[in-house]
């Protein structure tokens, strides 16, 4: 694939909200603000669009009826909050127009567990548990009318198989991104095998997110070779989380330098994940626009 102009994604929602002064240390993470400060979520979507993003990824990554229930939110209200994540993003999208999209974020089961399992996978639960968890949430998000789903940070093939089956049944477009490292899913399966699971008509792009930037180029090339679909890539900043100090350490990668090679390898959707903010998205957008104009 050549270096066509990609769709610029947004960056991390949680770090942008933290930069605005919000404490997201509870189990609901950024989803808590769907209840407590929805205008702040809208403000972050607005900031990313202004920086050059063409996609708003909703604040539903960590949102589930079960997760809200554990925080004391009644079921009907939890359903409303999950749906509202799409409405908030759509309202901001409509302010900007110009072909921008809303992607409804679908985080893995491990995000609900809030114990880091999305970086390990293999939760020790049957496929029926994963289906019961994901199915109703997918239906709520689809009913709220996003442009597509963002199935993201999936750590293993077991969960991917459940999600792919649901996507096929619901017949709704999605990109599908694994959490990966060193050419494997976080659970240790080869990415080529993992990508092959996602090769259904409803998946419009497949790739990785929440990973080291250095892992992207090879993963993108593998995704395109296996699925014959465009790739999606939105890694972390390059800083490393120090769990003991509960802080990010290290210097962020230069996305503006790295991303053109991702696009040349087949990435059609490009953005950032943890610790990537509006400034980096702006630099990324300018670099990829320059690459496109130079063709």
Automatic annotation (TrEMBL):
Gene Ontology biological-process annotations: methionine biosynthetic process; methylation; S-methylmethionine cycle
Molecular function terms from GO: S-adenosylmethionine-homocysteine S-methyltransferase activity; zinc ion binding
Cofactor dependency: Zn(2+)
InterPro entries reported for this sequence: BHMT-like, HCY_dom, HCY_dom_sf, Hcy_S-methyltransferase
EC top class named in words: transferase
Domain Hcy-binding: 1-288
EC number: 2.1.1.10
Cofactor note: Binds 1 zinc ion per subunit.
Top-level taxon of origin: Bacteria
Protein name: Homocysteine S-methyltransferase
Organism annotation: Kribbella sandramycini
């Amino acid at each position: 694939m050549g270096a066509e102009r990609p769709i610029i994604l947004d960056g991390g929602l949680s770090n942008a909200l933290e930069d605005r002064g919000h404490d997201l240390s509870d189990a609901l993470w950024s989803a808590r603000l769907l209840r407590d400060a929805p205008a702040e979520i809208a403000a972050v979507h607005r900031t990313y669009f202004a920086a050059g993003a063409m996609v708003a990824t909703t604040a539903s990554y960590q949102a589930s009826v079960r997760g809200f229930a554990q925080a004391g939110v009644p079921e009907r209200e939890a359903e409303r909050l999950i749906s509202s994540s799409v409405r908030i993003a759509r309202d901001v999208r409509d302010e900007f127009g110009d072909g921008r999209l809303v992607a409804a974020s679908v985080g893995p089961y491990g995000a609900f567990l809030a114990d880091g399992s999305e970086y390990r996978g293999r939760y020790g639960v049957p496929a029926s548990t994963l289906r019961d968890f994901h199915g109703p949430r997918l239906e709520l998000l689809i009913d709220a009318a996003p442009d597509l789903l963002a199935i993201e940070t999936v750590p293993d093939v077991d969960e991917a198989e459940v999600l792919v089956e649901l996507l096929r049944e619901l017949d709704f477009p999605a990109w599908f991104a694994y959490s990966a490292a060193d050419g494997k899913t976080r659970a240790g399966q080869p990415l080529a095998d993992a990508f092959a699971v996602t090769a259904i008509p409803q998946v419009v792009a497949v790739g990785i997110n929440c990973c080291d930037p250095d892992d992207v180029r090879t993963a993108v090339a593998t995704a395109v070779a296996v699925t014959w679909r465009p790739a999606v890539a939105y890694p972390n900043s390059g800083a490393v989380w120090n769990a003991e100090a509960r802080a990010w350490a290290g210097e962020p990668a230069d996305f503006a330098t790295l991303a053109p090679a991702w696009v040349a390898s087949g990435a059609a959707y490009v953005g950032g994940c943890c610790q990537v903010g509006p400034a980096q998205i702006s630099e990324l957008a300018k670099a990829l626009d320059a690459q496109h104009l130079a063709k």
